[in-house]
């Protein structure tokens, strides 16, 4: 079936410096070593904003004829775009937010390749090297603002949520916006879009013209979670681990809405970090919230955390059901503590250097069938390391659900097999089954076929 498409030629608007010939060649290189494929896929995802696809493979197949190339002119560059989704245009003109996002994608993909991946100054085998790389990518994107008081709330939650949960996330965003808090999300639909929409209205009522809506994505997930155009600062991190680190280093507090396997991955990531002995005294407000209809969801998550990571992990978050104002006040109070703490230690407000992130949370995890089978899911290890391995398990489920590579691997080799202790596998199987039953694995209207098998 043919979908409406548009051809266009666009120039950057103060978004990107002039590219060198070598950089252009690297981007246009369609071979394995080049950047063209990653740039094309991310650009298509950005242009597909507002669509109901959450399947990387389906998106690439739907717009097979899509092509994007860089035209070098004496005074800079233009992007020549063929077969772009018509949803990105209004009366033949590209939506300004999407226009900006395209050049943000270009900026980050070139910067990461030239300045980070191929740069011997960053030792990506070491914790400090990875944290430094994350800092440089964010600084290059212009999202680290040194003169601002802490006020950035990271909102996590599912892309596949129901209307009541979406409206609730919007109301929470609105209450936070009224209190001058800015929003950072994974920039896709659902619980990532709602808080930004709500905050936009809150900021407008308070006449805050400089409201920040920071979106942090990564190439593997962007097709499933196209950035919504409210995002006024978009950053593409090289992989899921650096994306997660960027969230916790830049954000001053986290609100978690209902979601599926990706949200469970994020919860396990932040809890694993907060449970590290070195982080015991670092204030980090963390609130799980949803409407009354989602109460059962948080009961299940809370129980799963109790059964796997234990009661100590439960001390690091608060669950607030059906009270957006309380969530906003809780965040405001928590961020005030963060400010006092950082001030007392002369720490930066814009990047949380003090947080210890174990290398197990930083090493990129490739969710292959073999790696999923070999995950160490047993109680006989430090609790923060168990959290790291549980995060990887959920990361694999996300890949099998929505990422182009993951979907193709499942089609080729069958289900991922996840093994481990009975007292971990039992709760995990129950939690994943509840996500399936509550339609949290795929967008509404799509039947879900599990990509995993839990073996007890």
Automatic annotation (TrEMBL):
It catalyses: AMP + H2O = D-ribose 5-phosphate + adenine. It is an enzyme of class 3 (hydrolase). Its EC number is 3.2.2.4. Residues 9-115 form the Pyrimidine/purine nucleotide 5'-monophosphate nucleosidase N-terminal domain. SUPFAM superfamilies: MCP/YpsA-like (SSF102405). Residues 335-455 form the Pyrimidine/purine nucleotide 5'-monophosphate nucleosidase C-terminal domain. PANTHER family: CYTOKININ RIBOSIDE 5'-MONOPHOSPHATE PHOSPHORIBOHYDROLASE, PYRIMIDINE_PURINE NUCLEOTIDE 5'-MONOPHOSPHATE NUCLEOSIDASE. NCBIfam families: Nsidase_PpnN. This is AMP nucleosidase. It comes from Duganella aceris.
């Amino acid at each position: 079936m043919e979908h409406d498409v548009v051809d266009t030629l666009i120039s950057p608007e103060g978004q990107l410096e002039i590219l060198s010939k070598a950089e252009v060649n690297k981007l246009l290189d369609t071979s394995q070593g080049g950047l063209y494929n990653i740039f094309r896929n991310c650009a298509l995802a950005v242009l597909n904003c507002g669509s109901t696809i959450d399947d990387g493979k389906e998106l690439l197949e739907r717009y097979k004829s899509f092509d994007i190339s860089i035209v070098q002119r004496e005074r800079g560059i233009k992007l020549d775009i063929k077969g772009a989704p018509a949803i990105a245009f209004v009366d033949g003109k590209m939506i300004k937010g999407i226009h900006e996002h395209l050049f943000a994608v270009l900026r980050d993909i070139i910067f990461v390749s030239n300045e980070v991946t191929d740069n011997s100054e960053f030792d990506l085998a070491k914790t400090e090297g990875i944290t430094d790389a994350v800092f440089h990518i964010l600084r290059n994107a212009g999202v680290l603002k040194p003169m601002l008081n802490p006020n950035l709330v990271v909102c996590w939650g599912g892309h596949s949520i129901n209307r009541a949960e979406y409206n609730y996330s919007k109301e929470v965003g609105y209450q936070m916006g009224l209190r001058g808090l800015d929003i950072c999300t994974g920039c896709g639909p659902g619980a990532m879009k709602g808080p930004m929409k709500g905050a936009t209205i809150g900021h407008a009522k308070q006449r805050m013209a400089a409201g920040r809506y920071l979106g942090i994505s990564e190439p593997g997930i962007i097709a499933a979670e196209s950035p919504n155009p409210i995002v006024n600062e978009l950053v593409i991190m090289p992989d899921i681990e650096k994306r997660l680190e960027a969230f916790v280093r830049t954000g001053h507090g986290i609100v978690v809405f209902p979601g599926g396997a990706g949200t469970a991955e994020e919860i396990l990531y932040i809890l694993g970090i907060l449970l590290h002995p070195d982080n015991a005294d670092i204030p980090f407000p963390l609130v799980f919230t949803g409407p009354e209809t989602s109460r059962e969801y948080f009961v299940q998550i809370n129980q799963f955390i109790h059964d796997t990571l234990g009661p100590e992990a439960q001390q690091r978050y608060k669950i607030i059901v059906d009270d957006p104002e309380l969530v906003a006040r809780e965040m405001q109070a928590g961020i005030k503590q963060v400010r006092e703490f950082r001030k007392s230690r002369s720490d930066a407000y814009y990047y949380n250097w003090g947080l210890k992130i174990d290398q197990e949370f930083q090493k990129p995890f490739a969710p292959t069938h073999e790696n999923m089978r070999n995950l160490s899911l047993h109680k006989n290890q430090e609790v923060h390391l168990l959290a790291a391995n549980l995060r990887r398990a959920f990361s694999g489920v996300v890949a099998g659900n929505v990422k182009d590579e993951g979907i193709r691997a499942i089609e080729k080799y069958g289900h991922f097999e996840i093994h481990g202790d009975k007292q971990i596998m039992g709760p995990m199987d129950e939690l994943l089954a509840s996500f399936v039953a509550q339609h949290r694995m795929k967008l509404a209207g799509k039947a879900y076929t599990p990509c995993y098998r839990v073996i007890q």
